[in-house]
Amino acid sequence: MAEKNTRLKIFHAGYCTHPEHIILRNKNRKDIPFPAMFALIMHPQRGPMLFDTGYSERFFSETKRFPSSIYRRITPVHFSEKDAAAHQLQQYGVAAKDIQYVVISHFHADHIAALGDFPNAKYIYLAKAFDDVRNRKGISALIRAFLPGLIPRDFMERSITIDRKPPVELPLDYIPFRWGWDLCEDMSVIAVELPGHAVGQIGLFINTDVKTRYFLIADACWLQQSYQQNIMPHPITRLLFADYKEYRKTLEKIHQIYLERPQLHIIPSHCMKTVTQHEHNTQS
Ligand SMILES: [Zn+2]
């Protein structure tokens, strides 16, 4: 019998390290690991798609020279070939050439470094997210954590911007999120805007069956304690964020849905605890 449900599998491709106190405003100056999460979504009609890609070898070749070498120094990256998304997917039984879509949460290097490894995928994102970075080079790209060399040459031809269609009004159980884009036209994969961290950042609600809903929130916050307790990161992170006020509003919304929907699985891309837990629990 044909599989009817959408399935989800969580992975991560490499990680970087940062001191914990920057995120939780506590006294812990120790470096902790931040995984670069990516997700495989198996849709019964649309086929396999990804949410982000994590790091890749290309991150290293693109950060060899100044000024992008600064990026690598600020966030030391741990990655080996076997961590690559394409490699892990192959181990899992999904060939890179079969990936139909890559949904891009935002254009920071740790989310898009392997875009070029999926030769037949269409790229799905909010137009303004790419518009914000597409003409940036050098320092101007660096302050957006954007490495232009990670964008495949045929990127535009393979792009499908989400907002070419109007969003749909979401059912009440998504409140405070009111509008979203129904990517597979069956309400199984819904993109919502999560602005603040980066211009046009999106997250995905994924309904794998009537009872199970995931919310992939990308970099709307970095650790689960942040949305559980509504903790804003250290003000120094203002330098990284596109809009600090919007970031606060987005975090408050996630905090609210967390309080109202205890069954919802919220997954920040860089929370090692959450990502590892779901790497074990999700299957496809
Ligand atoms: Zn980011």
Largest sheet features: 7 strands, mixed
Stretches where pLDDT falls below 50 for ≥5 residues? none
| Overall CATH architecture | 4-Layer Sandwich
Helical proportion, percent range: 10-25%
Strand order of the largest sheet: 4-1-2-3-5-6-7
The total beta strand count reads: 13
Could you name the CATH class? Answer: Alpha Beta
The CATH superfamily bears the name Ribonuclease Z/Hydroxyacylglutathione hydrolase-like
Helices, by number, come to 10
The percentage of residues in β strands lies in: 15-25%
What letter string, H or E per element, gives the SSE order?
Answer: EHEEHHEHEHEHHEEEEEEHHEH
Assembly type of the shown chains? Answer: single chain
Rg over CA atoms, rounded to whole Å, is 18 Å
Outline type:
globular
What number of domains? 1
- The SS-based structural class is alpha/beta
| Ligand names | zinc ion
Head-to-tail CA distance between termini:
16 Å
Summarize model confidence as the mean pLDDT: 92
CATH topology: Metallo-beta-lactamase, Chain A
Domain Metallo-beta-lactamase: 35-270
Keywords: Hydrolase, Metal-binding, Zinc
GO molecular function: hydrolase activity; metal ion binding
Cofactor: Zn(2+)
Description:
This protein has 284 residues and is of the alpha/beta class. It has a single domain (7-17, 31-281), classed as Ribonuclease Z/Hydroxyacylglutathione hydrolase-like (Metallo-beta-lactamase, Chain A, 4-Layer Sandwich), CATH 3.60.15.10. The chain has ten helices and 13 strands. The strands form two sheets. Strands 4-1-2-3-5-6-7 form a seven-stranded mixed beta sheet. The chain starts with 6 loop residues before the first strand and ends with a helix. Bound molecules: zinc ion. Zinc ion binds at residues 106, 108, 197-198, 219.
